[in-house]
Amino acid sequence: MRRQDALALAFLLILALPAAIAAGPDPNLAAGPEADPPREAQDSDSDSDSDSDSEEDSDSDSDSDGREHEAVHAGHAAMHAEHAASLAEREQSAQAGGEHGLRHRGPLEHSFADAEAWAERFESSERDEWQRPDQVVAALGLEPGMTVADIGSGTGYFARRFAAAVGAGGAVYAADVEPEMAVYVRRRADEDGQANLIPVLASYDDPRLPDGEVDLVFICNTWHHIGDRVDYARRLAADLAPGGRVAIVDFLPGELPVGPGPEHKLSAAEVEAELTAAGFRLAAAPELLPYQYVLVFERGAG
Asked: pTM value?
């Protein structure tokens, strides 16, 4: 796909954002955005349902109205049962182990729809201290004119820095599954005059990138959110330009003051095994960050 076509596709996706926001995210899908909040700031997940019938305003409602309410209730119950079965099946699969004997934990699920609220955490000076974004960008060796994709870009914390690094002749695709995040990134890009920063409304199993054009795919604090990571990595291989790389930044195992709980984390060795199964090889692992590993992969021979 030519870059012009990709740009047109990206803007078409943005035009569709208001409807997507109104519809809301699909609770049966699993992925995640840019970063997890500090442990103490995470909200507890709740699977409780709040569906209930409204109280009748009068006694004049017909029997058909009652049957309609019952049908709606039955539909809700079926949806909830299907969702519970899906989660149970995913958990059973994760416990049994996945492809190539790899341990596929279930993805970490919670909503990041309120972009303005999450921006206060994602863009905080406290995060700068441990995320060290400028050091990370420098270590990736970006050059003017390159094309970068930031998957799970969130509010554009890294994407804006990539856009500055590759210059006006380059392009940065800020891909996220949350429509509000894409709208937020577009607004910030307009305010900052970064015409080369392009928000993309991604799917949970496909980042919607132009095939064969991306020099660097960057995934920070997001890999542990993805469901079938081996298949996802294979999809990324098709997006890379010749010589393209995939960089994954995620949290070290154990208890840390930031990031998800230990049960949701993946070790560097697990991530390397997943990317190796998808046909990549580890090219570099610079030690830059106090709470995270940085892994850079290239496509393997053949």
From this structure: 0.66
